[in-house]
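Figure 2 data, in text form.
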Amino acid sequence: MVNQEQVQDALRAVIDPDLHRDIVSLGFVQNLKVHDNRVAFTLKLTTPACPVKDELKQQAEDVVRAIPGVEAVEVEMTAEVRPNPGASGLAMLPGVKNIIPVASGKGGVGKSTVSANLAVALRLTGATVGLLDADIYGPSIPTIMGTTELPKPGGKKIQPVIAHGVPVISSGFFIQPGQAVVWRGPMLAKMVEQLLGGVEWGELDYLIIDLPPGTGDVQLTLCQRIPLTGAVIVTTPQPVAVNIAEKAVVMFNQLKTPILGVIENMSYFESSKTGEREYIFGAGGADRISQKWEFPVLGKVPLATTVRETSDGGRPIVLDDPKSPAAIAFTECAKNLAAQISIRNLRAEADDLVNITF
């Protein structure tokens, strides 16, 4: 007769390729039951956006079926996002597990489009995701997300607008159309604090923050006031964009904010007729940043008219045309980002355990 010990021993052979540990020691295997040589268990991953969840499920089924006597295997997949250990007990955002700013250093690289598509792509995997537009001078998230209503007052805090299943808040909701924002640093910092702490975000696995270009007051406020899980850098392959994106990298390093990876937007143009790729803005920009600063390339998104059209139309392309090359690339970026967040949090948990032990 097959027993639980045999099954657990077999499952230790399944290694998570991102976390580099077996799924038993990671605590992924739960509710293990063996009855009449039939095995059932749950694989509880660290994110519903895990890019290798199908492979892990298949490997787990295969190693258990290989046990002599096993007649059937049933695997249920579930996930629970681990919080950033540094965010525990955060009074400003008590229900938010991970806060991820998206930065570019310069404008014009499609950072807001990337932020919106990351948020929606993560939401489509089953995660709870919020989107904060902190680009005070040029808020574009309301347009990209197609929000036509305004936030409503709640109890003590503002209720965010829900767009495509994502709670959204933006300074654009509070500024009259055509009005220019002419503010000094303290006013910018105050607005960011209101957008963070004055909003009823609820329980979120991820809060994506669309930052303004540059390395100014908004970035300083975020890095100094709240514990960030890590930042995402957006660039195009063009050397001038890469050089300025590196200034954002330097800023985050100085402020001791981890960088989770870089996304190369407008990476290439692919002809729909011939499939030939043209590298309009050059090539290899994200790779150069990745190699120099030792963080991963989360993905490369092609330049496509449909990305612009869907953004202007208020339906991010991961929703409007999910099988398009750009949507597939954005989804891959989101999954790789979720994996990096899990890796970062697991390492932080291990470091905290070592500090407590010693």
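Caption note: The chain has two domains: 4-79, 85-357.
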